[in-house]
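To whoever is on call:

I kicked off a structure prediction for a single chain this morning and the downstream step that reads the tokens threw a length-mismatch warning. I double-checked the sequence; it's 145 residues and nothing unusual in it as far as I can see. Pasting both halves so you can look.
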Amino acid sequence: MTNTSQTPPFHLAIPVADLAKSRQFYGEVLGCKEGRSDEHWVDFNFFGHQLVIHQKPVAEISHKPVANPVDGHEVPIPHFGVVLSWNDWEKLAEDLKTKNIEFVIEPYIRFQGKIGEQATMFFLDVEGNALEFKAFKNISQLFAK
């Protein structure tokens, strides 16, 4: 199914053991505005999308490290994130560097000079969830083969 007008926001809910630390990470480190919340969950405006963190006991959360080779890097799986404009991606990369975020894959240009050329970076949230933020030189190549 394709949407010819505006892309609808996605909704993603993830488990976290420490609601306070995760709330601080998404709110202060990534700058996501907080929406509704309750004792055990918090909604965030995740770059125009709805991200919900749900508190769960540590024993119920599994972050088994798995990776897949892409362009000479081991990409963590699963991961989630957002495709930003090139300028917004550059600003976020610089902001995260000043906040001393430890990158799984440092910000770099992937598939340089090829179809789908993109800026990408990977890092973990405070719970070990892998995030990827990317930007395309030519956004029309988002799904190009």
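Update from on-call: the warning came from a stale cache, not from the record. Cleared it. Sanity check on the structure: The chain has two domains: 1-56, 67-145.
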